[in-house]
Amino acid sequence: MILEGKTLAASLRAPLAQRADAVRRKLGRPISLFAAGSTEDYGAYVYLKKEVQAAEKLGVRTRVHELNNATRAEEFLNLLQKVSADPDIDSILIPRPLPPALAQSGFTRYIAPEKDIDGMSNTAMGNLFLCKSWQDVQALPTFVPCTALAVIRLLDAHGIDPQGMEAAVIGRSPTVGRPLAHLLTCRNATVKICHTFTRDLAVSLQNADLICAAAGQPALLHAGNVKKGATVIDIATNLDKDGRLCGDACTQQLLDKGCRVSPVPGGVGPVTLACLLENIILSGERKI
Length: 288
Hints:
Blueprint: H1 6-13, H2 16-27, E1 32-38, H3 42-57, E2 61-67, H4 73-85, E3 91-93, H5 100-103, H6 122-129, H7 134-138, H8 146-157, E4 166-170, H9 177-186, E5 190-194, H10 201-205, E6 210-213, E7 231-234, E8 238-239, E9 245-246, H11 251-256, E10 260-261, H12 268-285
Parallel strand pairs: 1-2, 1-3, 4-5, 4-6, 6-7, 7-10
Antiparallel strand pairs: 8-9
């Protein structure tokens, strides 16, 4: 079974323009987004521009600041302090990867939590990891990382309840793997986080009812290491040997084994964008 995300994404995005217009009328200005991305990573920067364009179509006022290897950490942190304090900026988006000097600058401490639409600030992360239940997550005053949230929403849309499942999350990044593992725990799954130093991935996966993969390794998941009937959420975006977009899973092999699999493209990706756009609108709604 294919767990496609385009239908869910469309339903999430459908009311957003109307909500954005309602905020504009009450605030007397459009919702505003500040985004800063690294031009050193072409793919990530192109995707950022697509996110910004999608926000603009909803009536959001946007500003994009380019970063590169020459950008000084002090300059970057001062910029974040300035936009965080600006009452006319409602949301801030800083996608990774960043140039090393900026990535290591502790920049997440400088993002105002109420504007941090991808939940990367210290406060947002702290709030999330203090949650024990899904009700706690839903009551958060801050935002949850969009990709992690998109996985939960995709599961819900297809009627898949993680409660009681043995789950394996492959990847431990602060933007995807770790917050996703915690969200699954809040949904009462038993979660194992796998990573580069996991000794034998096949052993870790052999009892997994649910596998969420964000390793960035094409063909990592295949019929030989995924059990029959497992649910596989493929979060990675890679290029195969023919230059085509793919995830971490050998999708057809797993489908032939009776697994439920989210495709790449068309699975988690569009839902992530929808969650991000929803958070931008929510950042404005919380001001009225």
